[in-house]
Amino acid sequence: MGSLRIARYRVEHVDTDAAGVVHFTRYASWFESAVLENLDGLGLGLGVAPLAERDLVPAVTELTMKYVRSARFMDRIEVRVRVAHVGGASFRFAGEVRHGDEPLIAGAESRTGGDDAPGPFIEDRTLLAAGTLAWCLVNGTGGAAARLPGPFREKLRDHMEESAR
Asked: Which UniProt keywords apply (predicted)?
């Protein structure tokens, strides 16, 4: 099994509502970005062989997300994804969005005033959300579903956890 990259983000003002809490749609966006970054890192992203030579593009077929805790403005978060399933015509990633482990300002106190209380400078990896993202490949011009090319499928399978095979 190969390892996948952890995507790290900082919650920006645009990610939040008027109360400074991350809007629920941002978790899905970060999750999708982490998957796309990892596909790129594996040489399986948009515009690269074996997809480009076959005019294939990935398309999301299903998203599930369970929200556990809220992130807030200026929190650091990390998104860890893993290949959960690879079939003949689809693949699925599972993942988690967690607080990151690096405070923005060294020694800063949390929003609630205590050094170890939750807040914008949290230093643990508290689970915020978890979910799955299922994909298929479609023809870039006609939009018809397509089988996963062998090299694409095998590279994804090489990165599946043993327990998921």
From this structure: Hydrolase
